[in-house]
């Protein structure tokens, strides 16, 4: 699995001021897309402490269940991750992208690798490109870490990411237990598939663009994993989710995680929980930074509708091993929910 090398957008903007957008980045459809107005729709807010509280958990669990069915997204507050862990990862991500271009290139992706500094899902020399630079790293299991691609500048980057990785893994595990119970599923069914589960992180740098209405920071897509936790690194917004034919801007609360259901969860539940198409748009004047942590079952897991909650013969999606699932996902360009459509079983003609 690999992504073709592309120029750094950050370096391009620094050199040209970003006034002229190269043709490969022009996305004329962006300006024509319908975007919901302020206050028209907002994703649910879930309180983790209420989920864990004996007296408040029933109502909050019901809210979580509704969010996973109707929205596929929610904001998680009172999650318990300490400020030093949050501020530590924020400072180090900002610090990395402020480094000289030649320093960042020391951690660039290599041929045949997805990890490192660069971009993802570039499979041809003529496809349209996203207005962003990223760092993509496998963080769990520990033995799968390729430290060659982990920046050692800023000096605290590796330790900050290590702490952050453990903290968000703990939250994902807690949420999966509650979500399993909401589905009437023994939590061990999913938990056992997540022993030595895979966690990867994607750190995003979206440079400003004078013609922001003509570019996109992250192409429309749904995530391939079980559960994604996104942290806003600076105050610039840009995440939008598709709902009822319009793009709904997400306004991250200070210190909250934006959590979304991934394709694997939609497949596991045969569509009861929904992964939702989302994208990142660009600001005209200021860069935006974020970090997404993706949580998936272990490499030996089987990805398909769970027989414990999906009656035989009613499966919508096919079953494949996890390695094949990830190969299929990373070998195509991002295009809405087309990947999940390819996972569907052919409809019976009977």
Determine the number of helices (DSSP H or I, runs of at least 4 residues): 11
Number of strands: 14
Outline the low-pLDDT stretches.
none
Strand order of the largest sheet: 1-2-10-7-12-5-4-3
Report the span from N to C terminus.
38 Å
Overall, the morphology is globular
How would you portray this structure in words?
It is a single chain. α5 packs across α7 and α7 (157-182) packs antiparallel against α8. β8 and β9 (246-249) form a beta hairpin. The protein is an alpha+beta fold and 350 residues long. 29% of the residues lie in helices and 19% in strands. The protein contains eleven helices and 14 strands. It has helices spanning 9-16, 29-32, 48-52, 57-70, 83-97, 101-104, 157-182, 187-193, 263-268, 322-330, 338-342, and strands at 45-47, 73-77, 116-118, 133-140, 198-206, 218-221, 227-232, 239-243, 246-249, 257-261, 278-280, 288-296, 302-303, 320-321. It is globular, with a radius of gyration of 20 Å. Strands 1-2-10-7-12-5-4-3 form an eight-stranded mixed sheet. A four-stranded antiparallel sheet has the order 6-11-8-9, with no helix packed on it.
